[in-house]
Design a protein that fits this description.
Elements lengths: L3 E4 L11 H9 L3 H22 L5 H16 L5 H10 L9 H10 L3 E6 L3 H10 L9 E3 L10 H11 L6 E5 L2 H9 L3 E5 L16 E3 L5 H8 L1
Parallel strand pairs: 1-2, 1-4, 2-3, 4-5, 5-6
Helix pairs in contact: 1-2, 2-3
Length: about 220
């Protein structure tokens, strides 16, 4: 059976909390907290904008979230520092298993695309510097639809772009809201449980696979598809 795989980017292929290293000279002891708050507020803004039908792209949400977090923590950022931080967001570190996991999936001949809230040009820069872009067939951004995950329209869009029925399209993500969104829209989904203590939402919608990382994903998808 032909299947296609849509891989989430932020939190699945690359680590948004890797921004703490860049923020440390600016925020000192608050750097880790600042990175965590930035990621949480960034997602909150996407949820709010999707619910309000008031779309602004992910780069804008990311900047606005950074400005809010800096103001909340009392960290003074110049416009230059904000610009530099946003450029560094395009250089987030890949997870150690990302490249080898994608290589394993490649070896099985799966159709694989990055699928993200992010803006396509920013994603190209990010995945290119992480050496992951050559392993992917391309990028699908929610920017094409003008809303954010977990709006069902974005999952319908990615299945259409990948040329498979929804039931033959897999979403691979470390974000439970993303997994639930994909399942609710008729896709299959694998949850990459990067944090051993993470708890999946008890909505009565379960992932088809739960895995620690990407390295054994190809074999496991093959057995269940």
């Amino acid at each position: 059976m032909a299947i296609a795989i849509a891989l989430d980017v932020y939190g699945t292929l690359v680590n948004p909390l890797g921004m703490s290293d860049y923020l440390r000279p600016i925020a000192g002891a608050q750097a880790d907290r600042m990175a965590e708050m930035w990621r949480a507020k960034q997602l909150e803004y996407t949820f709010r904008r999707a619910a309000m039908d008031c779309y602004a792209n992910f780069d804008i949400c990311t900047r606005q979230a950074l400005e809010w977090v800096a103001a909340t923590l009392g960290v003074q950022l110049t416009n230059e520092q904000i610009g530099q931080a946003l450029e560094n967001y395009k250089r987030l570190p890949a997870y150690p298993d990302a490249l080898s996991g994608l290589a394993d999936l490649n070896s099985h001949g799966y159709t694989m695309y990055a699928f993200s809230n992010g803006v396509e040009e920013s994603l190209k820069a990010l995945l290119g510097q992480a050496a992951l872009l050559p392993r992917l067939g391309g990028i699908v951004s929610v920017d094409d639809v003008g809303t954010f995950k977990p709006d069902p329209r974005v999952y319908h869009h990615v299945a259409h772009r990948l040329g498979c029925a929804r039931s033959d399209t897999w979403l691979v993500s470390s974000n439970p809201f993303d997994v639930i969104g994909a399942k609710a829209a008729g896709l299959k989904a694998a949850w990459i449980k990067r944090n051993a203590s993470a708890v999946f939402d008890s909505w009565g919608i379960a992932p088809d696979l739960v895995m620690r990382d990407l390295n054994e994903l190809a074999r496991e998808i093959l057995t269940i598809s």
